[in-house]
Amino acid sequence: MKEIAKWILGIIVGLVICGYGVVTFNGPVTCGDDVMERGDTCLSMRRGDAENRSYDEQAAVVKRKGIFAIAAGGLIAIGCCVGTVKEVQKQRRPAEVARQ
Known about the structure:
This protein is an alpha+beta fold. Helices cover about 70% and strands about 15% of the residues. The strands form 2 sheets. A two-stranded antiparallel ribbon has the order 1-2. The protein has a two-stranded antiparallel ribbon with strand order 3-4. Helix 1 runs antiparallel to helix 2.
C-alpha cells in the first residue's frame, strides 16, 4: 500500500505543476514579483550579465515557462498513473495465485 501512496503523491505533484503552468501561461506578464504593462522593461540578471526585455519579450518568456510546466507536470502525472496501475497489478497477482 505504501508504494501505491508514493505513486499517487507523484500524480498530485504532477497535477500541481500543471496547475502552476496553466496559471503562469494565462496570468499577467510579470518581471520578478511585479506585474508589467505595455511599455515597461524587465531587467534581469543572467550569469552575471544584465538583460533588458521589453513587455512582449518578457510575455514570450512567461508563456514558455507556463508551457514547459504544463508539459513537465503532465508527463510526471501520466508516468505516475502508469506506475500506480502497474503497482496495483503487481499487488493483485500474489492474491490471485494464493486463491488457486
